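#struct-help
A.M.: can someone run this one for me? Single chain, 340 residues.
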Amino acid sequence: MPDLRFFESLPALSVGGLAQRIEAEVVRGGDRMISAVAPLGVAGPDDLAFLGDRRFLPALSESAAGCVIVPASAVDAAPAGAAVIVSGEAQAAWARASLLLHRPISLTQAAAPDEVVEDETVVLEPGVVLGAGARIGRGSRIGANTVIGPGVQIGRDCVIGSNASIGFALIGDRVRLLSGVRIGEPGFGAAVSRSGPVDVPQLGRVILQDGVSVGANSCIDRGAYDDTVIGENTKIDNLVMIGHNCVIGRNCLMAANTGLSGSVTVGDGVMFGGKAGVGDHLTIGEGARVAAGAGVLQDIPAGETWSGYPARPLRQFLREAVWLAKQASGKARAGKAGND
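D.P.: on it. Structure tokens below:
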């Protein structure tokens, strides 16, 4: 179930009613009531899940979901007790169903400061907008024209710069967010359908643990369903992009223009040079180092330093660079001798 501080649960719908509204077909269980959406692995008896890839057939057969959306070829693999909806575009159908069951709580009316701040030590600069249900801890300072969304929890002794926006987030103590940061915007997710790409609702949160710093104009997307998490004392430079569902360990360093695609897992103490990029669903091991400008397309083991594009272990990268330089130099000398 999405966090009710950030998302409103809409009235439950029958499987038959859902199927009709998402233009899919009911195979069984049309009378069952569904109140939420969830991934296969965590879905419960009141939840709707989907199979988007045959790699997840084992998870489908073991799911406790009350209803599943599957392609016609996977009906027999659905759990025996689950209602079943068939669709040729299962993820897009699930995304449409999500919009019928959940809605982000909007900033329709600003909250009064005394409803939000912990005590008189909190400083709100001119133009700050506070959402209903937000909380700001003792000794924190919020910069001018910053927007704190509904339900956001900010710890003690935090410093947040001007013109920032923070939503769908739980923030620890002593967190520092510079001007223009964007925390909790929806991550990039789209499902293919016959009518074109369908936005997949992003129903997760952002969690910034104690002592995190985030530089100016950096973006940290909220999770698609699970959370995006930044570990204690991690320091993030200006203009960094962190995609949805990323989990970053403690004491990491990320230089400017680093970009992490969705669902990247980063161990403790990892360092990223400027403009490093990491592909989705990869793991960077504890204590690893990613050189500036590297393009990571596979997992990096703990403690290793990788460089280049595609990124590879530093010694291998340097050997290849030396070999290429020698080859180029030899051809240049040969060409000169021929001209002579």
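A.M.: thanks! DSSP finds four helices and 39 strands in the chain.
D.P.: also worth noting: Residues 168-334 form a domain with the UDP N-Acetylglucosamine Acyltransferase; domain 1 fold (CATH 2.160.10.10).
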